[in-house]
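[agent] plan:
  1. take the single chain provided in the ticket
  2. run structure prediction with default settings
  3. attach structure tokens to the ticket
  4. add a short note for the reviewer (M.T.)
[agent] executing step 1
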Amino acid sequence: MKTTTTVNLNEVVFEAAVKANEQANLAQQDFYNNKLNGREWGCCGFAWVVAKVKGNTKMGKALAAAGFSKHYGGGLQVWMPGRIGTQNIDCNYAGAKKYAEVFKAELLKANLEVEIYADSRMD
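[agent] step 2 finished; step 3 output follows
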């Protein structure tokens, strides 16, 4: 992880999470309207974003303050980012992928780097 001393870590992480969630929501809406034709069909499932960060680090505490919680496989997670209310796994995964992409890009602007990725499973 790269850090700079001039960055307010909590503020940067929180703002990145807000932007990422907004973009995840838009990605889900786009998928729902254009790929699913505005209908609820297909496989039911969940999606989330995993950040491979220990919860007791400065970054881990900043992520927890921004809404991340403990992930079963290690690190921290955001469960179902975007939250448009669909059960379609592909739609939920589109939102999670966008969240991870935007979150990582926002942190890189502040010279911060975190291993983050989207994951999913069928219900």
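[agent] step 4 note for reviewer: Helices lie at 9-34, 58-65, 89-109.
[agent] ticket updated
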